[in-house]
Amino acid sequence: MGFTRKRTNKIVKIEIYKAVKSKIQDRLQAAQKAMADSQAAANEESKSSAGDKYETGRAMAQNDRDLYARQQQEALNDMQILDRINPEQTFENAMPGALVSTSMGNFYLSVSIGIIEIEKQKVIVTSVDSPLGKLIYGKEKGDIFNFQGKNVEIKDVI
Fold first, then answer.
1. In tens digits, what is the pLDDT along the chain, a chain of 158 residues?
2. Rounded to 10 degrees, what is the CA torsion of 62, 65, 67, 68?
3. Pairing of strands 105-109, 121-126
4. Any alpha helices (H) in the chain, and if so which ranges?
5. Cα dihedral sign for 68, 72, 74, 75?
6. What is the distance between the alpha carbons of residues 101 and 20, in angstroms, rounded to a whole number?
7. What's the alpha-carbon Rg for the chain, to the nearest Å?
8. Cα separation values, 103 from 5, 25, 120, Å
9. How far apart are CA 85 and CA 80, in angstroms?
10. Alpha-carbon distance 144 to 152, whole Å?
11. Domain locations along the chain
């Protein structure tokens, strides 16, 4: 997989899972704090404003709260997906919870959060619903798929 053999790939996969969970928890906390701050600002606006300015301020505060509520819900949805994954489970085929090594790099199929680094190795954390995730899903060691005009080989799935 490209990870050092000092530790097993299974342990590395558990570390990836924990890192993904931590990022989602951070997103959730940030959204909750932003919602609380937005509510506090809206409350302050209603105390100090009158007329049209008051209505505009309230509308802007409501838009902010809606945005942060959506971000919070997305983080909660991602956490639910992650909670259904057993990080100790190994796989023969690429599916949620699998760590997939390809000729293009390492992928952890779970939720889409981007690139994380474990043991100086980059791992792309993506959902099976993403375009690349859809191409990888169900594949096994030795399979080849085409991505952006390039053949990509599955080197390992755990």
1. 555 444 577 889 999 999 999 999 999 999 999 888 887 777 776 555 555 555 676 677 778 888 998 999 999 999 999 999 999 999 999 999 999 999 999 999 999 999 999 988 899 999 999 999 999 999 999 999 999 999 999 999 99
2. 180
3. parallel
4. 9-48, 51-83, 131-136
5. positive
6. 18
7. 21
8. 19, 31, 17
9. 9
10. 5
11. 9-83, 99-157
Q: How far apart are CA 101 and CA 142, in angstroms?
A: 11
* Rounded-to-integer distance, Cα 87 and Cα 123, Å: 15
Whole-angstrom distance, CA of residue 99 vs CA of residue 97 = 7
Residue 63 Cα distances to 35, 56, 107, angstroms: 11, 11, 36
* Token representation of residue 110: 């779970």
Quote the CA–CA distance of 85 and 79 in Å, as a whole number: 10
Question: Can you give the pLDDT at residue 106?
Answer: 95
Query: Is pTM beyond 0.85 here?
Result: no
pLDDT at 5: 44
CB 38 within 8 A of CB 68: yes
What per-residue confidence (pLDDT) applies to 66? 86
* Residue of 121, 79, 40, 152 lying closest to 48 (CA atoms): 40
